[in-house]
C-alpha cells in the first residue's frame, strides 16, 4: 500500500469527499475519525430492533458531479429515491405540499451512503485528534492536513479560525401505533421544524417510526434538558401536529450539539479555508450546511491540495 501523503480529520461526507477526490488523482490519504465508523451527521442510530435516521433525513443533488455520484450509488444499491407524501404545517393548519424534487436516502439506512463512499478508503476509527494524536504531530508527518469536522470542533483544534458557530438540534424517534395521512412535513410553527415517518423511506424494516427535529432556537434554549424530558416535550408537540391520535410504544432523544447553520442562507466566501502551510479546513458550513455542501467543500479542499 502506498504511504499516505495527506491526513484528513473527520470521516463525515466532507472528509470522505476529499479522500475520494485525492484518490482519483493518485494521492493517498488517511482519515482519522473519533467515532467507530464513517458518516458523522449522516450516520444512522442503531435501535433495539433496527436503526433510524436521526441526523440527515435525505439529500438533494443539484451539482452535476454530485448528481452523477448519487446515480452510481443508486446503481450499487447504497442510495434510493424517497418519494414521500409531503405536507407543510403552519399556524393555518396542514396543507399537502407535493413537489418534484429528487430526494436521496441511504438504503437501507442513511449511513449506507457513507459506508459506500468509505469502502476503499483508509480510515483510522476511534482516533480523536487533540486527544489520541495532536494536530502538530499530523502536520509534521504528512505533506498536507485537512480538518473536516463541524465548525466548532475545527475551532477547538485551531483557536484562531474564523468560522461561524453551528446551531444544535434535538432529534427524537418514536414508534407509534397509528398510521398518519402524510409521510413527512415541513413545520413552520412551534418547537418542531421537521417530522417524518422513517418507515416511509425505501428498505426500512419498521412500520411507524417517526423522527422529530426541533428548531435551532428550541434546541438551543433546551440544550441541557435530559433526553427523557426532551422525548416527552417533543412527543407532545408531535401530538399537536399528527392528525390521528397515537400511543407511543418506544422512543429516544438524541442531541446534536453542532447540527446546522443558524440560518439556512449562511455560506462562507469560499468552498474551503486555506489555514496556511498546507493546512486546509472543509465542512458543510462552508457551503450552506447540507450534505451536498459538505461533499463540494471536501472536493474543493482536495483540488487546492492538488494545485
Ligand atoms: P460531519 O458529518 O459532522 O463529519 C465530521 C466528522 O468529524 C464526524 O464524523 C466527527 O465524529 C469527526 N470529528 C470531529 N472532531 C474530530 C476530531 N477532533 N478528531 C477526529 N474526528 C473528529 N443535510 C441535508 O442535506 N439534508 C437533511 O435532511 C439534513 N438534515 C439534518 C438533520 C440533522 C439533525 C443534522 C444534525 C444534520 C442534517 N443535515 C442535513 C446536515 C448534514 O448532515 C451535514 O451537512 C453533513 O452531513 C455534514 O458533513 P461534514 O462532513 O461537513 O461533517
Ligand atoms: P429541500 O429542497 O427539500 O428543502 C429546502 C427547504 O425548502 C426546506 O427546509 C423547506 O423549508 C423548504 N421545502 C422544500 N420542499 C418543500 C415542500 N414540498 N413544502 C414545503 N416546504 C418545502 O432540501 P435541501 O435544500 O437539500 O435542504 C436539506 C434539508 O436539510 C433542509 O430541509 C434543511 O432544513 C435540512 N437540514 C436540517 C438540519 C437539522 O439540523 N435539522 C441541518 C442541516 C439541514
Layout: helices, strands, pairs:
Elements: E1 6-9, H1 13-24, E2 29-32, E3 45-46, E4 51-52, H2 64-75, E5 79-82, E6 86-90, E7 93-96, E8 103-106, H3 111-118, E9 123-124, H4 135-141, E10 144-147, H5 151-157, E11 167-176, E12 184-187, E13 192-197, E14 209-214, H6 216-221, H7 227-239, E15 248-260, E16 273-276, E17 279-281, H8 291-306
Helix pairs in contact: 1-8
The protein binds flavin-adenine dinucleotide (FAD) and nicotinamide-adenine-dinucleotide.
Provide a descriptive summary of the structure in words.
The chain has helices spanning 13-24, 64-75, 111-118, 135-141, 151-157, 216-221, 227-239, 291-306, and strands at 6-9, 29-32, 45-46, 51-52, 79-82, 86-90, 93-96, 103-106, 123-124, 144-147, 167-176, 184-187, 192-197, 209-214, 248-260, 273-276, 279-281. By secondary structure, it is of the alpha/beta class. The protein has two domains: 6-80 and 107-164 and 268-306, FAD/NAD(P)-binding domain, CATH 3.50.50.60; 166-261, Polyamine Oxidase, Chain A, domain 2 (Alpha-Beta Complex), CATH 3.90.660.10. A seven-stranded mixed beta sheet has the order 7-6-12-13-14-11-15. The chain has a six-stranded mixed beta sheet with strand order 9-2-1-10-17-16, covered by helices on one side. The structure holds flavin-adenine dinucleotide and nicotinamide-adenine-dinucleotide (NAD). Nicotinamide-adenine-dinucleotide binds next to strand 6 and strand 15. This is FAD-dependent oxidoreductase.
Amino acid at each position: 500500500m502506498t504511504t499516505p501523503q495527506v491526513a484528513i480529520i473527520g470521516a463525515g461526507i466532507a472528509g470522505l469527499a476529499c479522500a475520494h477526490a485525492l484518490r482519483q488523482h493518485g494521492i493517498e490519504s488517511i482519515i482519522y475519525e473519533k467515532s467507530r465508523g464513517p458518516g458523522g451527521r449522516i450516520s444512522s442510530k442503531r435501535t433495539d430492533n433496527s436503526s433510524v435516521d436521526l441526523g440527515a433525513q435525505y439529500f438533494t443533488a443539484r451539482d452535476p458531479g454530485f448528481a452523477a455520484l448519487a446515480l452510481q450509488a443508486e446503481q450499487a444499491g447504497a442510495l434510493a429515491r424517497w418519494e414521500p407524501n409531503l405536507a407543510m404545517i403552519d399556524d393555518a393548519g396542514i396543507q399537502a405540499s407535493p413537489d418534484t424534487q429528487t430526494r436521496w436516502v441511504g438504503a437501507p439506512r442513511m449511513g449506507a451512503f457513507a459506508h459506500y463512499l468509505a469502502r476503499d478508503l483508509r480510515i483510522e476509527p476511534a482516533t480523536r485528534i487533540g486527544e489520541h494524536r495532536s494536530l502538530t504531530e499530523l502536520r509534521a508527518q504528512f505533506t498536507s492536513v485537512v480538518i473536516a469536522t463541524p465548525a466548532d470542533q475545527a475551532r477547538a483544534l485551531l483557536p484562531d479560525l474564523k468560522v461561524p458557530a453551528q446551531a444544535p438540534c434535538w432529534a427524537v424517534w418514536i414508534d407509534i401505533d397509528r398510521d398518519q395521512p402524510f409521510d413527512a412535513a415541513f413545520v413552520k410553527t412551534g418547537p418542531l421544524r421537521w417530522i417524518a415517518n422513517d418507515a416511509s423511506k425505501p428498505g426500512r424494516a419498521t412500520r411507524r417510526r417517526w423522527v422529530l427535529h426541533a428548531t435551532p432556537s428550541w434546541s438551543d434554549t433546551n440544550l441541557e434538558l435530559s433526553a427523557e424530558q426532551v422525548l416527552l416535550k417533543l412527543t407532545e408537540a408531535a401530538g399537536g401536529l399528527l392528525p390521528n391520535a397515537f400511543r407511543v410504544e418506544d422512543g429516544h432523544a438524541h442531541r446534536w450539539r453542532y447540527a446546522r447553520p443558524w440560518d439556512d442562507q449562511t455560506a462562507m466566501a469560499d468552498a474551503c479555508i486555506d489555514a496556511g502551510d498546507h493546512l486546509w479546513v472543509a465542512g458543510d458550513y462552508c457551503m450552506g450546511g447540507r450534505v451536498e455542501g459538505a461533499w463540494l467543500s471536501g472536493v474543493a479542499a482536495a483540488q487546492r491540495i492538488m494545485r
